[in-house]
């Protein structure tokens, strides 16, 4: 169990994020089940989980950057990373509000993590969240946040960090229990507010991380019958807007003020959070295009997500197929190739590996009873395992084949046969991936030590099975050397995946090299599109 702290330092912030993610993972389904406001779409727990997952990943990145040094990150760096991660990864109405709550806290806790600053942080968080919501409603997460801040503020001036946290947590729990009496839709459904329940869970994790006490956390189960989407919008009992629109936005403050007015006239559930030029925009509208156009007028919107509530419900009730393959690909070219083969893909952009939430979304999108998950990256092993476990908790049978490169994933996909038994199919795909050696070419960004010696900036590196094996000056020559080393132990098929800017002449040169030097070895070439490595190589 974490130890009690007198000051919320960087380690405590890291522990808080980890415990909050773990707790939301346990309670996600139960929170989803009580989600009836503002739209009964059953995803509040999931959205909170994905938001905190992004916050936790950002904090871990700060600690990873300090691994080679002898000092820990500063508290300010940790809380700012937490807030930024939540902002860019916020999902849904509840996740967006939580991101603003964390941002409000981070602004104060960056100065100090003592009890006095924690009181101020909770107060600032509650005020910032209310300001971010176009039309605040009592009986929601905003009420719970305000109650937590007021309870913390009422503690004695000399109270320690644990006492302040205890007060905030109990104040939030009390307020949560009262939400059915404040919001009619909750009272009719017989549930507490789902977003408020999520905030109580997050505050409980903070109490455990910094206060050293693990509170008893329970989510009251939902009644057997709950409203469906459209039945619960207070302002429009006949049904709310058709679309949820979310995007990140780079824009100045004055432009965002105008954006709020524009979006408020288009729909409801408007929440705009952030600052310093980066914002997360959430709104429910009937005209999704107009909501995006408003963002374009304000600045640069990206990571745009549009969800049709009715279509989402139709997908949820659609009869699933028996089996699907979900795999991560490093470029859009491979994404198209694998999609044509019937797989569901997740694009790993250069320097931006997918989070477990994206993998879970892809597994759901495949809409199958059985799913084979191919991460195609050794560094995604734990992320993929977490996604697989979450999907299993939702009743989907998931097998994780620990592929470490895209060429292994392609080899596994090539032998996939949905008509045979699940276990037999997984064994065959695992064997095909395991029999495929992989390599890639990269360009050194700076002088450094490698397993093949010292490289200089601009050198071409040939990595075989994840380790630098060849250092060269020329892409063609280095690629030939890598192929020779890989084929020295035998092989039947060479797979070449070319990056977007790599000329076809490289594939021609290497194919001819294989033909002339290795009898009975075939070569296949694919265009990977925009990918980090100029060339990926597989040998089966």
Would you give an account of this structure?
- The protein contains 19 helices and 16 strands.
- By secondary structure, the chain is α/β, with parallel strands linked by helices.
- Helix 1 (10-33) packs antiparallel against helix 9 and helix 14 (356-366) packs across helix 15 (381-393).
| SS-derived structural category | alpha/beta
**What is the overall silhouette?**
elongated
**SS element count, helices:** 19
Largest sheet at a glance? 6 strands, mixed
| Fraction of residues in β-strands | 15-25%
Q: Kindly, what is the distance between the CA atoms of the first and last residues, rounded to a whole number of angstroms? A: 48 Å
Give helix % range: 40-55%
Low-confidence stretches: 227-238, 311-319
Q: How many beta-strand elements? A: 16
Radius of gyration: 26 Å
Overall pLDDT, averaged? 85
Strand order of the largest sheet: 13-12-9-16-14-15
């Amino acid at each position: 169990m974490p130890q009690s702290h007198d000051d919320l330092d960087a380690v405590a912030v890291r522990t808080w994020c980890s415990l909050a993610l773990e707790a939301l993972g346990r309670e996600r389904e139960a929170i989803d089940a009580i989600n009836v406001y503002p739209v009964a779409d059953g995803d509040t727990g999931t959205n909170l989980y994905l938001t905190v997952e992004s916050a936790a990943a950002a904090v871990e990145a700060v600690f990873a950057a300090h691994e080679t040094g002898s000092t820990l990150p500063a508290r300010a760096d940790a809380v700012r990373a937490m807030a930024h991660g939540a902002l860019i990864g916020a999902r849904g109405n509840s996740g967006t509000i939580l991101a603003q709550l964390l941002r409000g806290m981070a602004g104060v806790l960056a100065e100090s993590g003592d009890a006095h600053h924690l009181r101020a942080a909770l107060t600032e968080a509650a005020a910032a969240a209310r300001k971010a919501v176009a039309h605040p409603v009592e009986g929601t997460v905003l009420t719970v946040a305000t109650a937590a801040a007021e309870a913390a503020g009422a503690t004695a001036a000399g109270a320690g960090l644990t006492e302040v946290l205890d007060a905030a947590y109990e104040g939030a729990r009390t307020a949560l229990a009262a939400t059915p009496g404040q919001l009619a839709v909750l009272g009719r459904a017989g549930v507490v507010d789902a977003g408020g329940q999520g905030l109580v869970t997050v505050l409980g994790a903070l109490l455990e991380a910094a206060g050293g006490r693990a509170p008893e956390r329970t989510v009251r189960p939902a009644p057997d019958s709950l409203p469906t989407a459209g039945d619960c919008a207070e302002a429009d009992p006949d049904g709310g807007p058709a679309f949820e629109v979310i995007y990140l936005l780079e824009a100045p403050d004055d432009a965002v003020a105008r954006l709020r007015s524009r979006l408020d006239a288009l729909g409801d559930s408007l929440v705009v959070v952030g600052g310093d030029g980066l914002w997360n925009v959430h709104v429910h509208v009937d005209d999704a295009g107009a909501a995006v156009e408003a963002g374009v007028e304000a600045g640069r919107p990206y990571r745009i997500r549009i969800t049709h509530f009715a279509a989402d419900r139709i997908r949820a009730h659609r009869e699933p197929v028996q089996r699907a393959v979900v795999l991560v690909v490093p470029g859009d070219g491979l994404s198209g190739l694998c999609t044509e083969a019937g797989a569901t893909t997740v694009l790993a952009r250069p320097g931006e590996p997918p989070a477990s939430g994206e993998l879970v979304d892809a597994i759901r999108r495949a809409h199958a009873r059985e799913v084979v998950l191919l991460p195609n990256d050794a560094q995604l092993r734990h992320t993929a395992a977490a996604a697989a476990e979450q999907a299993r908790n939702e009743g989907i049978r998931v097998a994780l084949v620990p592929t470490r490169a895209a060429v292994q994933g392609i080899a596994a996909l090539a032998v996939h046969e949905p008509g045979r038994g699940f276990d037999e199919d997984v064994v065959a795909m695992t064997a095909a991936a395991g029999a495929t050696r992989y390599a890639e070419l990269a360009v050194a960004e700076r002088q450094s030590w490698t397993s093949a010696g010292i490289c200089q900036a601009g050198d071409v590196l040939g990595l075989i099975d994840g380790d630098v094996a060849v250092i060269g000056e020329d892409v063609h020559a280095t690629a030939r050397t890598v192929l020779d080393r890989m084929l020295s132990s035998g092989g039947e098929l060479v797979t070449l995946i070319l990056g977007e800017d790599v000329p076809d002449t490289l594939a021609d040169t290497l194919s001819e090299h294989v033909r002339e030097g290795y009898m009975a070895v075939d070569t296949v070439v694919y265009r990977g599109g925009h990918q980090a490595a100029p060339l990926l190589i597989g040998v089966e």
